Automatic annotation (TrEMBL):
The keyword Transcription regulation applies. The keyword Transcription regulation applies. It comes from Pararhodobacter oceanensis. This is AsnC family transcriptional regulator. InterPro entries: ArsR-like_HTH (IPR011991), AsnC-type_HTH_dom (IPR000485), Dimeric_a/b-barrel (IPR011008), Tscrpt_reg_AsnC-like (IPR019888), Tscrpt_reg_AsnC/Lrp_C (IPR019887), WH-like_DNA-bd_sf (IPR036388), WH_DNA-bd_sf (IPR036390).
Length: 152
């Protein structure tokens, strides 16, 4: 399915206002409520909309620090990669983990309370992951840009 201009307008609004009512969305993009509802259902069914979430304020829940961890594995074999990925998927504090091209094999993103909280996560989980040859951690000093919205 190709996205037309109306689909893109729907997606732009829903990315920033996921709780907007169908009636308000329909009015905003100049469609009837029934046509708008059908389009949103089709966008969901076709996988353009993968879900709806509440975005939490990490500071308010006590996790103001962002940490990025670069992992280099001892080998690129399928067994080592699979074992690492299964292990990292079980860590409750991991927000994102990406297989990378470049200096590191994986990049992990965490939100932590402070350095002591990160040390706990490191000892309990990260240091026990299989296949790690090197690990480098960096604390973000300030977030300059943060969005979940894709440019359409």
């Amino acid at each position: 399915m190709q996205l037309d201009t109306t689909d893109r307008r729907i997606l732009k609004v829903l990315q920033t206002e996921g709780r907007i009512s169908n009636a308000d969305l329909a009015e905003r993009i100049s469609l009837s409520p029934s046509a708008c509802h059908r389009r949103v259902q089709r966008l969901e069914h076709d996988g353009y909309i993968s879900g709806y979430v509440a975005l939490l304020d990490a500071r308010k829940i006590g996790r103001p620090a962002t940490v990025f961890v670069e992992i280099t594995l001892s080998s690129q074999s399928d067994e080592v990669l699979d074992a690492f990925e299964k292990g990292v998927a079980k860590i409750p504090d991991v927000l994102e983990c990406h297989l990378m091209a470049g200096n590191a094999d994986y990049l992990i993103k965490l939100m932590v309370e402070d350095t002591e909280d990160f040390a706990r996560i490191h000892r309990r989980y990260l240091a026990r992951l299989p296949g790690i040859a090197q690990m480098h951690s960096s604390f973000a000093l300030r977030t300059v840009v943060k969005t979940t919205a894709l440019d359409l």
